Amino acid sequence: MEFSTYKIVIIxxxxxxxxxxxxxxxxxxxxxQVYSKHKxxxxxxxxxxxxxFTNQPENIDTSADIYIIAVNDDSIIEVVKHLRLIxxxxxxxxxxxxxxxxxxxxxNIGVFYPLQTFSKNNKVNFKIIPICIEAxxxxxxxxxxxxxxxxxxxxxxxNSEQRxxxxxxxxxxxxxxxxxxxxxxDILESANVSFDILKPLIEETSKxxxxxxxxxxxxxxxxxxxxxxxxxxxxxxxxxKKYQQLYNxxxxxxxxxxxxKKQ
Amino acid sequence: MEFSTYKIVIIxxxxxxxxxxxxxxxxxxxxxQVYSKHKxxxxxxxxxxxxxFTNQPENIDTSADIYIIAVNDDSIIEVVKHLRLIxxxxxxxxxxxxxxxxxxxxxNIGVFYPLQTFSKNNKVNFKIIPICIEAxxxxxxxxxxxxxxxxxxxxxxxNSEQRxxxxxxxxxxxxxxxxxxxxxxDILESANVSFDILKPLIEETSKxxxxxxxxxxxxxxxxxxxxxxxxxxxxxxxxxKKYQQLYNxxxxxxxxxxxxKKQ
Lengths: 263, 263
Known about the structure:
9 helices, homodimer, alpha/beta
């Protein structure tokens, strides 16, 4: 399938901006300029994209088709103050910020939220990343749909309310799981065991839910109602009250789920 | 490297027993018999291993070298009552049960704990599974070491105390993470969004910690101290008090970790 190609200004030079621009460039779009208030970050990204860059909002190129704001949630409103683009398309990449925050910048606004965790240096396969898109009019939606489909096979139309719910669910599945890994690592350290020992288990845990629902794949002392093991675990955590609280709360929640399932 | 091969009786016919026997057979050991109190489970596993089976403890074959008890933690003590094997090797595969529970069954006892989550039908690559071994004498240790190395490249000598700590850490990294997936799925359901949308994110989250510590890879509103997003998330969870409690507790724990890191 052939897609239209667009001239794009990227606003931001962090992890999302970097990975998204690399994918867009690969799909033959033209990144005309990188803007970031941090001159050196803008310069580094612009160099890898072989394009112009600026850290002066008044120097943002006004000849592009699409302006992608990929900055921290709190900074979006600051950026919008500087953008008066009238009939260009202005979009942001955030999971939790309402589309309408962009209204002062243009009459054509939208959201392009790639549901993934990005690092600057870890290459990601954009083709399998779900992209949630939304726009304030049909013409803008068609452009975003074409842009998104040029980089990913998993494009979905998602409104602002749904997107916020997806972002919340992602906090549980990504940020909170990662923190549980950190707790596991801390617990192992107390027994002088390397965190490496858990890595195959962590990988398999994430793979198991590919073809089964996580409620079906639940294992462990809580789902077996194995009180002996749970009380021995709580005893082992007696010096770490926060972990004990978490252990209790998550175990109770597992037991609740299993009761609901049986009903 | 050449390994000795052994004659083995497997006690239990669940997920661990099944996957372990398949790996042992592949490494040229002989499974002489499957024992399970559930005749049909014993029969199914024995059929796939092409060996004898029984559900009568008094009929357990006494001619093997090694007896592997791979049953639920609570059932180990029941099984031990029936085993009087004097100079055979008797081991269990549990993460949380002390080795000495096996003492009545033989003078040669040990533990063979494969740190992985198993399903009966999901094939696993045993070579990369960490196996924690322990024995009550050197001769038994040597046999277990040889047995473990014949199926896995990641064999570690781990004492009972360390093993219990590893098991506790695994509960956080595996059982509790899986439950967070279930919560995420439940949250998405309320917005009519399929859990599939989170799968690439979940996979990437588990991959990120392969080369970085989970403390380094932490992202999300809590680590950024993004109070606006956190309070909006808590508001969205107002109908689900348990999720709200969990959100609060895990977020606080993430903030604590980041403070400790900065110190």
